[in-house]
Amino acid sequence: QAVPAGSHVRLNLQTGEREAKLPDRENGQSDSREERRRRRLGKVDVDANSFTSEELKKALAKMKASEKAERKVSSLFLEQCTVRKKFRPIEQLKEEFEKLNMKIETDYEIMVKLISKFNSSASTLDEKVAALYDLEYYVHQV
What InterPro entries does this protein's entry cite (predicted)? Predict the structure, then answer.
């Protein structure tokens, strides 16, 4: 229900109803109920059954804006679904390449092997230098 701007609103805990009170006049007296019904503050009508055209236009604009936002979210979701359909997960690709006797390793897995080769005491100096060169290439990509 529309409430005039500047009204005092509270929740009555005994009845569970929300109550609104117009602000006091300058002389300290409150408006009577009849005066409140007839009086309009700003563009908001005190009578709950009537609204100004401006209020209705603003409410309609808010509804349209929220509808546009919902459409945008749903279109993004559909776009993500179509992109996901085009690509397959890495685990599935690895399984398919294993069937072809090809082993696919990620850059991370290769870097871990190169580091372990470099730290290994069984590696020769040439193997360690080669591991460092290869590792430099992968680190540069990251």
Answer: Hsp70_NEF-Inhibitors
